[in-house]
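Recall the central idea of this unit: under ordinary conditions, the amino acid sequence of a chain determines the structure it adopts. In this exercise we apply that idea directly, starting from the sequence alone.
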Amino acid sequence: MSQVRKDPVATAREEAWAMPLEEIDVSREDRFQNDTFWPFFERLRREDPVHYCRESYYGPYWSVTRFRDIMQVETHPGIFSSEPAITIADPAEDFPLPMFIAMDPPKHDEQRKVVSPVVAPSNLAKLEGTIRERVQNMLDNLPRNETFDWVDRVSIELTSQTLATLLDFPFAERRKLTRWSDIATSDPERGTGRGLVNTQEERRAELLECLEAFVELWNERVNAEPGNDLVSMLAHGESTRNMDRTEYLGNLILLIVGGNDTTRNSISGGVVALNKYPEQYRKLREDRSLIKSMVPEIIRWQTPLAHMRRIAMEDTELHGRTIRKGDKVVMWYVSGNRDEDEIERADDFIIDRPNPRHHLSFGYGIHRCMGNRVGELQLRILWEEIMQRFDTIEVMEEPERVPSSFVHGYSKLMVRIPT
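Accordingly, the structure predicted from this sequence is:
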């Protein structure tokens, strides 16, 4: 007699509420890969919103899981430092990758200021026509009545094209940017090399290959007139032109991952969400003006980067818990964006929310995502062009998710566009 297979989500919910609080470790990649992490955060928000995990692969850490508490950490950079890294994983001592998002003021502010003109309104206005033309070509060449991988054909393709433009990277080689982004956020020792690298040595070799490619671009641009691309801005910037190689690589990885993983996974997440909530898809078909509010709702609902981490610079108290100097503090955006005390029906995807930009996906305060408007621009244009062409995009099977507690995204999403 065959056994009925239990729903993994139901199993996770039972486990989350039966487990002693002190044993909960929300950093486990397997739960992100099979999309069963949600009930663990739900319990922490209700019972232990500032939670101490004593033992994990990443060592002991605090989890901050409610919206308001995350805002408290974000807005006190003097108490909660971004150095030396933004992820729960500690940087390798022999291969540090300093980057301005993992720096405190004043150095953070100086380096961020160098590259921020790339996302100025005037630059975005110029970029819009280019993105629209590329999106139109991309969508017009998609197959009909055939199953294909949306991640590869649309999500990666659009974001790699845009990122190559912002970096003025050789356009024909743009998929290298995607590969380097995936490798930078992988951990082969945890078995999460994404099929690209099997050891830390291989990972470092690939990242050094990335560095060498961009050193060539640096050398070209440092001897030319300042341009409007990110590499030229770094090469000519007062606070960045004398960076050493590791800091240059660190900032490149930041710009590549920030410009790739976040938007890529929101592009896929929007298709997943509309299929999961067909009444919202109907609403969108009836009123395309809702794209404007749907875009930030996609970004909230997906939360493409699940967390950021800080280090306590002094003993402090948060939500009644005493955090000691030197403790690792992880802000779980993926949980704060589902906080029912802050966002009504937070688990649901609702494309006409009255205040859709009220979310944590871009962070807050001095480290708020510099490229948030570029991401929103790509999503808006994409959905405007989709709705002119296709009544629906059907998800044909359960998506394959990234085995990461940092990048909350998809490695494969098989879809079909019916005629």
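The chain has a mean pLDDT of 91.
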